[in-house]
Amino acid sequence: MLQIVADENIPGLDELFAAHGRITKVPGRGMQAALVQNADALIVRSVTQVSAELLAGSAVSFVGTCTIGTDHLDTAYLQQQGIRWTSAPGCNARGVVDYVLSALLSLSERSGRSLLELSVAVIGVGQVGQRLVNLLQGLGINVRLCDPPRAALEKGFQSEPLTKLLAECDVITLHTPLTEQGDFSTQHLLNQDNLPLLKPGAWLINASRGGVVDNQALAKFLLQRPDVLTAFDVWEHEPAVNAELVKRCHLATPHIAGYSLDGKLRGTEMVYQAFCQHFKILQPQQLTYPPQPIAGLNLGVVDNPWQMFKQVCRVVYDIRNDDAAFRLSLQAAQPELAFDQLRKHYTERRELTGLQVNNTRNTQELAAYLAAAGVQV
Asked: Which is catalytic among the residues 72, 131, 175, 209?
């Protein structure tokens, strides 16, 4: 029987893996070498640092992270040791897109500026970024792109310089991986040198990795430039976030942008498939997705298509709720523990693409907005 050590917060874990071995569930930040010593497989999320310190001398031959990002894995070490590793690229991309859309709608309300009239720069056009680009362009929004690594690989891909976009675009939204070395390092991609390039009244969104933005530099910058509106989901040194920076952000959440139930289950399923290949499991289990809690929305007469579109989006996800809960958690005696508790006990959230809306025939404009967002019309 296989010995499996896994983060306790992975949904679908028992349904898929229990038939193949004994599962030991551990808090993601509490993963220690002694716990994985005799394990055959390690299943984690982004809060667990998987390195030689954790795995040296263990029996682990398979590591799976149920997340898009892999910066918490020492992949060079894993490859050197012959340990198979896998991630779940794209699993929660749609959840992040829903998060960014909600942030944009809320910042639009706060600023009194129409989102449809703004230019948006998407920095990092990968699994998340490309989906976001497709949605925004479907809404008729002017979108500009920056992704030098992708441009280096794809001859036809046009990437604009970051500094040019910072100076010219109304909205900057970050969707890069965190890389600390190489020609395309993203560590402190935004810093004290280029943050001042942001145009007056710009919006800055980060739903990628905390280290992509120098948090200390940003806190100082926002003190001098309160005109810049910010929506941040990720932070340097999580769960020990910079409380002063949170106060200066207009929307702040505890690293939950991709926390849709659908995204989490897809991540577990993708890692499970690689697990079965590695251990030569010929009869894999099937994961059952729970039904959508909202079977369909019946809309009446629509006077303002954009306002109705915003209301429909908020039926599925409203960033303002997570912002309020996060700010309240900072008042706790142990805010770092509260940060993790918010993530552990996160309210079940689905995705816009699973929503069906009826009676949109009275306005083609609303139907077009909903279709661009992936809502079933």
From this structure: 209
